[in-house]
Amino acid sequence: MPHDPIPDNAPPADTGTDDNDGGGPAALLGLPRVIGHRGAAASAPENTVASFRAAAAAGATMVEFDVKLTSDSQAVAFHDETLERTTNGQGRIRDLSLGELRRLDAGGWFEPVFAGEEIPTLEAVLDFLLGVGIRPNIELKPCPGRDEETARVVVAVASACWPAHRPPPLLSSFSREALEVARELAPTWPRGLIVDRLPPDWQDATLALGVSALHCQQRHLSPVAVEEIRRTGLAIVAWTVNDSDRARTLWKWGVDAVVSDSPDVILGALP
Ligand code: G3P
Ligand code: MG
Questions:
Q1: Which atom of ligand 1 is found nearest the CA of 239?
Q2: Structure confidence at residue 5 as a pLDDT band (50, 70, 90)
Q3: For strand 34-37 and strand 235-239, is the pairing parallel, antiparallel, or unpaired?
Q4: 211: burial class by Cβ within 10 Å (0-12, 13-18, 19+)?
Q5: How many CB atoms lie within 10 A of CB 184?
Q6: How far is the CA of 140 from the centre of ligand 2 (A)?
Q7: Which residue from 167, 200, 212, 215 could staple onto 194, CB 3.0 to 4.6 Å apart?
Q8: Which ligand 1 atom is at minimum distance from the Cα of 259?
Q9: 39: left (phi over 0), alpha (psi -120 to 50) or beta
Q10: Catalytic member of 3, 79, 215, 220
C-alpha cells in the first residue's frame, strides 16, 4: 500500500459559504461554488483515491473526475487516452484490461510519496466519496467510438453503488452521444454539457440534450457570455480555475461553480 501523506481527519479549509443559494438553477441542482478537479489535482495524483482524499481534506463537497472504459469494459477514473503521462505503463488505456491496469503505478509520477497509488474503478471512487460525504461529478470521457458503452457502464455502476436517497451524481461530458444515452438510462440525474469555446449551436444543443448545466472553459468566458447563458436558465460551471482572483471575478459575473485543481485555495477565496 502506498504511504499517503494526507490524513482522513485533516481539518477542512476555513471558508465562506460554498452553497449556491437564491433558488436559481445551481441551487436547484445543489451545486456548490467550488468543485475539485480530478479530485484535488494540484495536491495529489489526479483521479486517484489520494486525490479524492486531498479534496475531502480541503473541504470540497463535490469533485469532478474522468471515467473511461478498460478493454474488458470496466469503468475506471482516468483522463488521458494513453498511460504514459500519469502512470508507469505504456500504450492506450482501452487496450488493457482492469487486471493489467491495476498493476500500474498511478502515483509515483506525481511525487515519490504517492508511489503505488492505483487507477481506481468507478465503484471504488464512489465508495470513497460516499464515505467522506462528497458528491460526484462524473465526467463521461469515452475513448473514441465508445460513447454509448461508456455512458451505459457508468450509469449501471453508479446506479448500483450510489444510494437513491443521496443527491445523485452530476454527469457531464463533451460527448453529446454519451449525454443522450445517460438521459435515457437515468432521466432524473442532472447532466451538463462540457464545451471549450462556446460552440455556435450551444443554445440548441443544450435544449435538445435537456441538460441543466453548461461547463465552460473559463478562459473563453466573458460577462456577456455568462449573462446570455444565465438567461437560458442553465447553471454555469467554469473549468479549470486555480487563481483566487479569477474565481472571484467569475462568481461576480454570475458563474455558479468553478472547477479547481486547488479546491483548498479556491474555497479560501469564497466571499
Ligand atoms: O469537467 C471539466 C474538465 O474536467 C474538462 O476538461 O480535460 O480536464 O477533463 P478535462
Ligand atoms: Mg474532466
A1: 2
A2: very low
A3: unpaired
A4: buried
A5: 11
A6: 8
A7: 215
A8: 2
A9: left
A10: 79
Residue nearest atom 6 in ligand 1 by C-alpha distance: 239
| Distance of CA 261 from the midpoint of ligand 2 (Å) | 11
Distances (CA, A) of 1 to 50, 100, 102, 153, 233: 12, 17, 13, 28, 46
Query: C-alpha cell of 229?
Result: 447563458
79 is catalytic: yes
The cell 440548441 sits on which residue?
204
Q: Is 149 helix (H, G, I), strand (E, B) or coil?
A: helix
What residues line ligand 1, using a CB cutoff of 6 Å? 37, 64, 66, 79, 139, 172, 194, 215, 239, 259
List the residue whose alpha carbon is closest to atom 7 of ligand 1. 79
Neighbour count for residue 231 (Cβ, 10 Å): 9
The verdict on whether 37 is a catalytic residue reads yes
- pLDDT above 60: residue 7: no
Question: Looking at residues 11-40, what average pLDDT do you find?
Answer: 84
Grid coordinates given for 133: 460525504
pLDDT value for 21:
80
- As a CATH number, domain 24-267 is 3.20.20.190
Closest Cα partner for 49 from 88, 84, 4?
A: 4
